[in-house]
Design goal:
elongated, about 600 residues, 5-stranded antiparallel beta sheet, 6-stranded antiparallel beta sheet, about 10% strand, about 55% helix
């Protein structure tokens, strides 16, 4: 024993701390980190085989997997798109705009994936903000915050609620109602909306990144290589026509052949057409220097380049392997059949050759790509987030059917007619039976990485409890905070809110569950209200863009800087924590254990 912990406890502590460190400082996939942590606990004997893999059979994890199919049915029948189109309206002030935006987003996020809802709203908010003459950066942070606060309002709205309620049911044999967190969540949402309106000056006013691309057509130039050009026979790289100042080479026409993307080793022939995008003055200067002449089309729009291609805007994800690299230094374009046309950062177009820009998280990239490109491949989605998808389903019979299925699932669960897991299974089967989504779409909707994180969170929580760490930490908190239950609840929720700024809220919920549960029992109180407060706190990450996947989704489109979230987020953390503790203790008064 050392400091009150046995060897198994120390192995668990080191594993958990190492996992935190790896998640913070590396770009490794989260699911692989969690899987590695489980493997260490199993191999070292901290957990037996049944315990190590118990997360994969956990009711809460299975519910999450089944709900992916339900959400797929809502997506592919256009339910979300209809809501987006019909709810925002034309408010005449910023305050009204915030209310009109945050309330429907929160309502949708109460039942659907926060990430899905935000991804659907991003483009809508950008267009809407132009109509309202409001900078998108003033609305995109509230969009992300609303999705997080709305997710808290039901047990199925956010993964930590499912994890914590599932663990509570396993410990007590009593299942929480699906609407357990509704009143606390709505109160915190109400406080949050008022806080954002009051602190609107803390929200940055940034230029939208795609604004840098609005006049891209003016920067596109087609040049022809005359038959007496001295560079004929040389490669593009040797002639200095591949890397040019203020622009990039998009396409090369060898007679009837169109080469895209292009290698710098491609030889130059008489009659070749070279298509560049960039700063028109520098491109013209380059053309004169290399004795290139104007093609039939002198300056034209990108839409005229190739009718089989289109412009797509993407944002560099946090954790992308492209960060710190240049597109020109990788095989990314060739592997994905994309051509990089321009790069913008914080709303300003970068004037150097796009392929030579060292990329940062949140950079906006303009690509020329085939119209039928699949932007949902794992190689693309791990590095980039595309928001200009044309895949918008038609509103019709399926819209009404999927909506009815969703409502029935929630009502049956809320009234305790049957458990949530059975309701979710029936809803998923109904979505397939009524063709709201195809089996292929349903299977593609199931995110294995997220399920792995959820399962790993359950296992780590079990290890923390089994080895006595939770009990020891609970005693430590009691020693510091005394025996006042409100002080203990607030202290654990505060630490949970801080931790969830850096790791997934699912992981924070699973790890803090045993600590909160043990602390409540040591104080002699029923753990239920303590755990409701924990649910709200681990989903209240407002101060860093890495605190939530939804923050990452709006980071690029809003042209934000890392510090933009901290300016308003730190105050939001404190305000929502206070609102959380207040309302939970009003709705669920502390009850001594019998």
């Amino acid at each position: 024993m050392f400091l009150g912990f046995n060897i198994d406890a120390w192995i668990t502590i080191i594993t958990v701390l190492s996992m935190f460190t790896v998640l913070l400082v590396t770009k490794l996939r989260t699911d692989l980190v969690f899987l590695g942590a489980i493997a260490i606990l199993f191999v070292t004997g901290v957990l037996n085989a049944k315990e190590a893999f118990s997360g994969f059979s956990s009711t809460s994890v299975v519910v999450i997997g089944v709900l992916f199919i339900v959400v797929a049915g809502l997506m592919h029948t256009g339910v979300l798109q209809w809501i987006v189109k019909n709810l925002l309206g034309q408010p005449n002030s910023y305050s009204k705009a915030v209310v009109r935006l945050m309330l429907p987003v929160a309502a949708l996020s109460s039942f659907l994936s926060n990430t899905t809802v935000v991804a659907l709203f991003v483009n809508i908010v950008k267009m809407w903000s132009k109509k309202l003459n409001i900078s998108p950066s003033k609305l995109l942070i509230p969009l992300s915050y609303a999705s997080g606060m709305g997710g808290v309002c039901t047990l199925i709205g956010t993964p930590p609620n499912l994890i914590i309620s599932g663990l509570y049911a396993e410990h007590t044999g009593t299942a929480m109602n699906i609407l357990t967190t509704t009143i606390p969540g709505l109160f915190c949402l109400f406080v949050g909306v008022l806080s954002i309106i009051a602190m609107r000056k803390l929200l940055p006013e940034r230029k939208a990144p795609e604004g840098a691309f609005e006049s891209t057509g003016e920067y596109t130039l087609e040049l022809r290589v005359p038959s007496d050009n001295p560079y004929i026979g040389q490669t593009l790289g040797e002639a200095g026509l591949y890397h040019v100042n203020g622009g990039s080479l998009l396409e090369l026409y060898h007679f009837d052949d169109v080469l895209s993307p292009i290698s710098e080793d491609e030889p130059i022939m008489g009659g070749d057409h070279l298509v560049y995008a960039g700063q028109i003055d520098e491109l013209i200067e380059m053309a004169e220097k290399h004795q290139l002449v104007s093609a039939d089309h002198h300056v034209f729009t990108m839409s005229e380049l190739d009718m089989s291609r289109q412009l797509r805007t993407a944002y560099v994800n946090f954790g992308s392997k492209l960060i710190g690299k240049t597109i020109g230094g990788t095989a990314f374009e060739r592997e994905n059949n994309l051509v990089l046309a321009a790069v913008a950062r914080r709303g300003e177009r970068i004037n150097q050759a796009p392929r030579q820009v060292v990329l940062q998280a949140g950079d906006t990239l303009l690509f020329l790509c085939p119209k039928n490109i699949n932007i949902n491949t794992s190689s693309l989605t791990s590095d980039l987030c595309f928001f200009d998808s044309d895949d918008v389903p038609n509103i019709g019979r399926g819209t009404l059917v999927s909506t009815t299925i969703m409502i029935l699932m929630v009502v049956l669960s809320a009234l305790n007619v049957m458990p949530l897991l059975q309701c979710a299974f029936l809803a998923a089967i109904a979505m397939l039976a009524f063709r709201c989504c195809t089996p292929t779409q349903a299977m593609k909707s199931i995110n294995g990485e997220i399920l792995m994180v959820f399962a790993g969170s359950v296992v780590l929580g079990l290890a923390i409890q089994k080895t006595g760490i939770a009990e020891r930490l609970a005693f430590g908190i009691l020693d510091v905070c005394g025996t006042n239950p409100l002080v203990v609840m607030t202290a654990i929720c505060f630490v949970g809110t801080f931790i969830t700024e850096f790791i997934s809220n699912t992981a924070a919920g699973a790890m803090f569950f045993p600590i909160m549960y043990q602390a409540a029992e040591k104080l002699g109180y029923e753990p239920f209200p303590f755990l409701v407060a924990l649910m709200v706190s681990v989903s209240s990450s407002f101060a860093t863009p890495i605190g939530s996947p939804t923050h990452m989704l709006v980071y690029g489109p809003g042209g934000y800087r890392f510090s933009d979230f901290m300016r308003i987020g730190l105050l939001m953390n404190i305000i929502i924590l206070a609102a959380n503790i207040l309302i939970v203790n009003i709705i669920y008064p502390l009850t001594p254990l019998h």
